[in-house]
Amino acid sequence: MELGDEGAGVLGRRERDILALERRGFAGPGAKERVIREELGLAPVRYFQLLNALLDDPRALAHDPVTVNRLRRIREQRRAER
Hints:
mainly alpha; 5 helices; 68% helix; globular; disordered N terminus
């Protein structure tokens, strides 16, 4: 299990790191993907899979409501455009 390994009410280290990375700004194309690989040791595709699942996790909302709600709005806008 990759999400929620540290307990029912607490986000794991990887989950907190993903949310922290989403709060950062990135200059230039490919910068975010490079940070994902170097700092988290994940392929970008896997990172975005984990992030998408994390957006539906109530623990993530409790941990960082501003970031999670912003990303949920972006996700919904993209879905509506399809």
